[in-house]
């Protein structure tokens, strides 16, 4: 399915310990370039987050931001290792008994003692699990929006392919008459100038003119490239780069038509082809 690289998604989850909010934005880029803005306590999750993102997206500049709002009870509550605190108090009393000039005990210094403030490992694991789970859901929502926009881009491209088909068919239908008219024109020029030219030489000149002005190969290649664009749009893998290459090939054939055109109508048709191809190319820049 054709996917755009431009999208935005926001997902939120509520828990007893707080609220998680993921916001992800993506724009077009040649490669996949993710950046993460995470709370300090969750920066270690960047590697698994990148892996989750790469599993779903192939291209685009992606900015992902996580907001963590802890509940009041979690923010104000501090768990103390009471057994360790009792041991510290007992040890402090023993020191005071031996050294009479010891100062008063500083509670803030005690709090700095390793292991006194307890971090609940189970809560940390739950936070990490919910963060990754919500991120996966947000990436899924982002991808769905990219696919919806990609469907619209595909329709725009297919509309222009239909117009190209019509222009190519018109040029092909007019070509025999154009070549015949040019041959008659050449004969008339020789006649007006009253030049004595044998029929063999005149036929050779007409053949050279027809060969120079013949654009059947260019029209055939345009038809082939249009069919390939349609086939590429039906693929299930990222197709942006291949479509961009095909636009270059279409544009090359349109340029050749302009250079080989011998009547104004063909030149104008070739210019219209170039306009349609450029419109497609601009849209394809947003396709993954």
State the CATH topology of the domain at 148-284: Butyryl-CoA Dehydrogenase, subunit A, domain 3
Gross morphology: rod-shaped
CATH architecture of the domain at 148-284: Up-down Bundle
Q: Work out the strand percent.
A: 5-15%
The class by helix and strand makeup works out as alpha+beta
Q: Gyration radius, to the nearest Å? A: 36 Å
| Count, helices | 9
N-to-C order of helices and strands: EEEHEHHHHHHHH
Report on this structure:
This protein is α+β, with helices and mostly antiparallel strands. Among the domains are: 80-111, no CATH class; 148-284, Butyryl-CoA Dehydrogenase, subunit A, domain 3, CATH 1.20.140. The protein contains nine helices and four strands. It has helices at 46-56, 72-76, 82-98, 107-111, 121-192, 199-213, 216-233, 240-260, 264-284, and strands spanning 7-15, 18-27, 32-37, 60-70. It has a four-stranded mixed β-sheet with strand order 1-2-4-3. The protein is rod-shaped and about 120 Å long. The mean pLDDT is 85.
Pick out its properties.
4-stranded mixed sheet; rod-shaped; alpha+beta; 64% helix; Butyryl-CoA Dehydrogenase, subunit A, domain 3
In a few lines, what is going on in this structure?
The protein is 64% helix and 12% strand.
List the topology elements.
Elements: E1 7-15, E2 18-27, E3 32-37, H1 46-56, E4 60-70, H2 72-76, H3 82-98, H4 107-111, H5 121-192, H6 199-213, H7 216-233, H8 240-260, H9 264-284
Parallel strand pairs: 3-4
Antiparallel strand pairs: 1-2, 2-4
Helix pairs in contact: 1-5, 5-6, 5-7, 5-9, 7-8, 8-9
């Amino acid at each position: 399915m054709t996917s755009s690289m431009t999208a935005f998604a926001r997902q939120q989850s509520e828990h007893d310990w707080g609220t998680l909010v993921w916001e992800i934005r993506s724009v077009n880029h040649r490669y996949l370039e993710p950046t993460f803005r995470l709370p300090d306590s969750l920066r270690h999750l960047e590697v698994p987050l990148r892996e989750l993102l790469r599993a779903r997206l192939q291209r685009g500049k992606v900015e992902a931001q996580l907001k963590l709002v802890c509940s009041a009870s979690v923010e104000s509550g501090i768990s103390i290792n009471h057994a360790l605190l009792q041991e510290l108090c007992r040890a402090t009393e023993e020191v005071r008994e031996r050294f009479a000039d010891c100062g008063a005990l500083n509670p803030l210094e005690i709090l700095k003692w390793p292991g006194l403030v307890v971090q609940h490992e189970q809560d940390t694991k739950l936070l990490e699990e919910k963060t990754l789970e919500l991120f996966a859901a947000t990436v899924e929502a982002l991808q769905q929006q990219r696919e919806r926009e990609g469907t619209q881009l595909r329709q725009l491209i297919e509309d222009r392919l239909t117009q190209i088909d019509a222009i190519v068919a018109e040029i092909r239908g007019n070509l025999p008459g154009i070549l015949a008219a040019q041959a008659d024109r050449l004969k008339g020029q020789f006649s007006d100038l009253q030049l004595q030219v044998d029929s063999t030489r005149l036929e050779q000149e007409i053949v050279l003119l027809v060969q120079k002005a013949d654009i059947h190969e260019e029209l055939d290649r345009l038809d082939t490239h249009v069919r390939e664009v349609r086939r590429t749009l039906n693929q299930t893998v990222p197709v942006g780069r291949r479509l961009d290459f095909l636009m270059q090939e279409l544009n090359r054939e349109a340029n050749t038509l302009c250079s080989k055109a011998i009547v104004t109508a063909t030149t104008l048709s070739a210019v219209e082809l170039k306009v349609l191809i450029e419109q497609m190319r601009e849209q394809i820049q947003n396709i993954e």
